[in-house]
Design goal:
It contains 13 helices and 15 strands. With 437 residues, it is of the alpha/beta class.
């Protein structure tokens, strides 16, 4: 059978929205995967360093997950939250125990957007306020409420919002007015900015929502401890802290199981949101919150598809595999090797401004050689050049000038070295093309 990708692309364009982004000048149709590799419709094999936007967390076609899904679909596929569900309760128990939040409750959704939307509903209801603190360069989803708190113009199509959003400093360490400060002075300056911002508000702010490592923002992060310092200020005002763990959860950063644990000096967040990796491709999201906050909703509510027996079975199998195989430790070890390898590559390339991140969550920011000016052109060229060599990477950051590297957490040392070699070749080609242009 031959696969006519151009025809499929034309069909896609005729029925899908114009704003539904596709990677590559010749978009890929991925047909199957195994481990850390995927294949396209033409039979080309790729090393996957993006995992469907950090979603294929353990491995493609992981037998344990495939088996769990198959067995559950053979029993019953759907019931809704109006009925008791053993898989949902079992996964919730596991997540509560892992969350670090005392007296926690879990509400399951189908995506990270929906999880953050639910967290905003909880926070504004509990605090009786529609004011939200968010980080500059942040991204929290594509719904009406989450777009309204996204601090990244490339992903925020409207200024209309049900929320009043106040943006504070701290998410981007190496750019902005505080970049030249030491980590301690940087944190102090961001705390002072937060204190000043709170003096501009009338009434109580509901919550601060923050990604411990900014995902779409290009894997930027504050110094460890910044959100703990924020927490002191927030606690004085009764303001809730929502940690958006959609991309940082489940041990991907290597050093911690949750991203908030890099900022744990003043305790856990009031809420954390999760999605992506836990389902290994199945649509699972959710909110973990203190019971006092979670139970503040007085109206009836359900989730038709959140907590589905099939997705919960997948999540349980995937989480069990992750813990039994210490994929957090693997992310720390193999990710540490990969980031050092990429920093060595970057040292000889003017097109690379910075290699940042931790674990298997690595950002490579590209600039116009000889300047500090972000280069979306270089990033687009690098994504294409990597694909031509059999490597899939993502991109993001302000203006789309950063490469995002986030392979499945079972990545081997050999695969990390192979991916680094391929990316080095791609970046060398980009350097020549950008400098030559």
């Amino acid at each position: 059978m031959t696969h006519d990708s151009p025809s499929l692309h034309a069909r896609h364009q005729s029925v899908m929205p114009s704003w539904l982004s596709l990677y590559y000048e010749r978009p890929l149709e991925l047909t199957h995967g195994e481990g850390r590799h995927v294949w396209d419709a033409d039979g080309n094999r790729y090393l996957d360093f993006f995992g469907g936007i950090l979603t294929t967390m353990t491995a493609h076609a992981l037998p344990e997950v495939t088996k769990a899904v198959s067995e559950q679909t053979g029993r019953i596929i759907h019931t809704s939250t109006l009925y008791l569900s053993r898989p949902m309760v079992e996964l919730a128990e596991r997540i509560v125990a892992l969350s670090g939040i005392p007296d926690a409750r879990v509400f399951f959704t189908t995506s990270g957007t929906e999880a953050n939307d639910a967290a905003l509903l909880l926070a504004t209801t509990h605090r009786r306020s529609n004011q939200i603190l968010a980080m500059r360069n942040s991204y929290h989803g594509r719904s009406f409420s989450t777009v309204g708190i996204t601090g990244n113009s490339g992903w925020s199509p409207t200024s209309l919002s049900p929320l009043q959003t106040l943006y504070v400093h701290g998410g981007v360490r190496s750019r902005g007015p505080y970049a030249a400060l030491s980590d301690a002075d940087y944190t102090a300056a961001c705390v002072a900015d937060l204190e000043d911002m709170l003096q501009q508000t009338a009434g109580g702010v509901a919550a601060l929502i923050a990604e411990p490592v900014q995902g779409v923002g290009g894997f930027t992060a504050p110094p460890d401890g910044l959100y703990a310092a924020f927490r002191e200020v927030l606690a004085r005002h009764g303001i809730l802290w929502i940690s958006d763990e959609v991309q940082t959860g489940w041990g991907r950063t290597g050093d911690h199981f949750w991203g908030w644990q890099a900022h744990a000096d003043n305790g856990p967040p009031d809420m954390l949101t999760f999605a992506k990796g836990i389902g290994n491709g199945m649509s699972i999201g959710g909110v973990v919150a203190r019971a006092e906050v979670m139970n503040s909703i007085s109206a009836n509510s359900i989730s038709t598809f959140g907590g589905s027996p099939v997705t919960m079975a997948a999540g349980l199998a995937n989480l069990t595999y992750l813990l039994e195989h210490d994929l957090q430790g693997n992310a720390r070890r193999v990710g540490g090797l990969l980031i050092e390898r990429l920093r060595a590559v970057a040292a000889g390339l003017d097109v690379v401004r910075e290699v940042r991140g931790r674990g298997l969550m690595i950002g490579v920011e590209l600039v116009r050689p000889g300047t500090d000016e972000r280069s979306p052109e270089a990033a687009s060229l690098a994504v294409e050049a990597a694909r031509e060599r059999g490597l899939l990477v993502g991109k993001g950051g302000q203006g789309g000038a950063s490469l995002r590297i986030a392979p499945p957490m079972s990545l081997t040392v050999a695969e990390a070295e192979q991916g680094a070699d391929l990316l080095e070749e791609a970046l060398q080609e980009v350097q020549q093309r950008v400098a030559g242009g």
